[in-house]
Amino acid sequence: MICNICKIDKSISEFSVDKSQKLGVRRRCKSCMTLRNRIRRNGTAEYKKNYAMKSDGTKKQCPKCREIKLLSEFNKSKTTKDGQSVWCKMCVKGNAKKWQLKNKELLSHRVRTYSLKNKFGLTIKDYEKLLKQQNGKCALCGKDKGNSNGIRLAVDHDHKTGKIRGLLCWSCNAGLGLLGDNIISMKRVIDYLVVYV
Prior knowledge:
His-Me finger endonuclease fold, elongated, 3 domains, Wheat Germ Agglutinin (Isolectin 2), domain 1
């Protein structure tokens, strides 16, 4: 693995553990982190030149792009002394986009996991169990078109009680939603179709 600071290829054992990273270790080797921390503690000119942020109360230097910008160009932060994030908004945005491009599958999994848990109180295992019970098919039309092109079956639930009823393809879920879960409206649709089909 290559260290972000010294750019030397080193073994993983020479990096500190960091579970938030994809590989489970920091991107800076232990020796570079030790040197950086030593420089920081001593408050030497080298640290101030390379790492410290310059600020006059209205402007601040971003350590990523090295540009001096207005404080309004930095996000707010409760963890820093000046109340502004370390990197400017543009650098944060650029870094986030790079990470998202590198980690599309992980991001998709995280979004899916969060969405299922937050909206319906389901885990991925609960969803897979429902899908297996329905043989991977829509609970209404019985087609497995919800799984084509990577599109998953939607979780259908009662909007009043929040109770999960099953998994539906996009078409059935949209139709049910447009009819407002109203049995009378659905009977009218059936009566209409009987006359013209």
